[in-house]
Amino acid sequence: MLIAIWAQDKNGLIGKNDHLPWRLPNDLRFFKEKTVNNTIVMGRKTFEGMGSRPLPNRQTIVLTHNTAYENNQVLVMHSLEEVLHYSQQTEMITYIAGGSAVYQDFLPQCDFLYRTTIDHAFEGDAYFPSIDWNNWQLIKQTQGTVDEKNPYPHVFEVYKNNKDRT
């Protein structure tokens, strides 16, 4: 199973200088709950923006066109096909975790989307790619809790792919 997971502001912004432009512990907790004991796929820049180290208790795949790139703490792959083949061979769910180009490549293959929408506008330089929402059905929506640690209104959404991919 392939799932894209991300947080965005109300304008679709997902990053600034290869980092998240906000601090929202509720979303980080949501991401951890969903991805722990599973596989996450991210591009090299996203991985390096996280400190070039894998998140605990997850199999991390770094997707890069750079065939000389090495990191013995993660699996390094060089194509969508290589990741899809790996995903089909494992019992774990594979989560697509960014950046923009990686989301763009994998969206047609995803079974579900897990999107956190933050009701605030931030400044940044990376946006989630456009989606044909006619292929997706909202199946769950949960309002996030706003408090002193999570100052921005936010919603957790789950979409199911309705597109016939046979």
Number of domains: 1
- The backbone outline, from C-alpha atoms, is globular
What is the second-level CATH architecture? 3-Layer(aba) Sandwich
Q: Compute the CA-based radius of gyration.
A: 15 Å
Task: Characterize the biggest β-sheet.
Answer: 8 strands, mixed
CATH-defined fold name:
Dihydrofolate Reductase, subunit A
- What is the count of β-strands? 10
By CATH reckoning, the class would read: Alpha Beta
Number of discrete helical segments: 4
User: How much helicity do the residues have?
Assistant: 10-25%
Q: Tell me the strand order in the biggest sheet.
A: 5-4-3-6-1-7-10-9
Q: What's the overall average pLDDT, rounded?
A: 95
Beta-strand content bin: 25-35%
Order of SSEs: EEHEHEEHEHEEEE
CA(first)-CA(last) distance:
15 Å
Name the CATH homologous superfamily: Dihydrofolate Reductase, subunit A
Given as residue ranges, the uncertain stretches (5+ residues, pLDDT < 50) are none
EC number: 1.5.1.3
Catalytic activity: (6S)-5,6,7,8-tetrahydrofolate + NADP(+) = 7,8-dihydrofolate + NADPH + H(+)
Pathway: Cofactor biosynthesis; tetrahydrofolate biosynthesis; 5,6,7,8-tetrahydrofolate from 7,8-dihydrofolate: step 1/1
Domain DHFR: 1-161
Explain what you see.
There is one protein chain. The chain is α/β, with parallel strands linked by helices. The protein has a single domain (2-161), classed as Dihydrofolate Reductase, subunit A (3-Layer(aba) Sandwich), CATH 3.40.430.10. The chain has helices at 25-35, 44-49, 80-89, 100-106, and strands at residues 2-9, 13-15, 39-43, 59-63, 75-77, 94-96, 112-118, 126-127, 136-143, 154-161. An eight-stranded mixed β-sheet has the order 5-4-3-6-1-7-10-9, with helices on both faces. β3 (39-43), α2 and β4 form a beta-alpha-beta unit. The protein is globular, with a radius of gyration of 15 Å. It catalyses: (6S)-5,6,7,8-tetrahydrofolate + NADP(+) = 7,8-dihydrofolate + NADPH + H(+). Its EC number is 1.5.1.3.
